[in-house]
Amino acid sequence: MSIRAKAEPLDWWAADEYGDRPVFHVVGYAAEEDRRAAKDMKHATALRQPLYPLRVWGWDRNRCDAYIRGLIGERWPRSCCAGCCFGFNQRNLPDLVARWRAEPEVAAHTLLLEHTALAFHERMRLFGKTSAHQLAREHALTGALALYRAQLEASRFAVYEVRRVVHAGTEGPHVKGPVWRSVRQLSTGTRPAMTVELAERAAEAGARVEFDDDGIARALVVAREDRYPTTERLLALAPVGAVDKQLKSFDKHWARVSADRSGRSPDG
User: Fold this and answer.
1) Fewer Cβ in 10 A, N or C end of the chain?
2) Is residue 168 part of a domain?
3) Domain end call among 76, 97, 116
């Protein structure tokens, strides 16, 4: 995620701005962040030369906090977005919980985003093995949870079709490669009406609607196989807002892989 969200956009911007001229990329890794700096150095090139001034000065997180406090007279909290998946670790968790408690509207928005993500894929928990919903419950963030539920009640809902083509990796058919996703909104309405709609569409497809512990509903119509390439199709219930999206060649690959699946024996 960090590569796609940070590194690639920065590299594209540098290429547009400076062309083939080398640039110094100043990165604010603190003195204790050896692993992050070592990992980043692997991406150094003739055109991208990373520098880590805080590490050169020996400034750790506490030294940086003290410097800023001396300048402005108060502690400067982490500036990452409130829904950042990288904020969930032993050191940063207290600050994250405190921010969500102080800004329940921000936490509620994060919960709403995760709701749709989980509807489209049950493994898309914000913090890996822990979901934002689980974090809010465990820390009794009642304000955020109440706002989130109120936003759900006020939202229009949609039934979405989510399809995936899971390509084979370069190592062969038993290694997963890139995953292409298609999202299409099928119908919209109130949450109760769309719940009924989801059940009806699932029944027509020979599938069953399942609800997780947070009431997020989806129906798996076509399950992916253990060999690749393969396909997956599900129907999901989520607030209106997800944009229909797929690659131009998605349908061609979907048709080809689906045909290959139907021609294979169940045991592969």
Assistant:
1) N
2) yes
3) 76
Please state the separation of Cα 266 from the chain's center in Å: 33
Distance CA 65, CA 121 (A): 38
pLDDT of residue 143: 96
How far from the centroid of its chain's Cα atoms is residue 119's Cα? 12
77-124 confidence digits (pLDDT tens)? 766 677 777 777 777 888 889 999 999 999 999 999 999 999 999 999
The confidence score (pLDDT) of residue 82 equals 73
Burial pattern 238-266, b for ≥16 Cβ within 10 A else e, equals bbeebeeeeeeebeebbeebbeebeeeee
Quote the domain boundaries for residue 172: 156-263
- Dihedral of alpha carbons 192, 198, 199, 200, sign: positive
DSSP 220-235: EEE---SSSSEEEEEE
What's the CA gap between 236 and 162, in Å, rounded?
A: 7
> For residue range 122-153, what is the model confidence (pLDDT) as tens digits?
999 999 899 999 999 999 999 999 999 999 99
Question: Cα–chain-centroid distance for residue 31?
Answer: 29
| Number of residues that this document lists for the chain | 268
- Residue 224 is predicted with a pLDDT of 94
CB atoms under 10 Å from CB of 35, counted, come to 9
DSSP state, 3?
Answer: I
d(CA 231, CA 239): 25
The answer to whether 132 touches 121, Cβ cutoff 8 Å, is no
Looking at the structure, tell me whether residues 51 and 135 fall in a common domain: no
Compute the C-alpha angle 213/107/185, nearest 5°.
65
Place of tokens 């989130």: 148
DSSP letter for 87, please: G
Residues paired with 222 in a beta bridge: 233
- Number of structural domains in the chain: 3
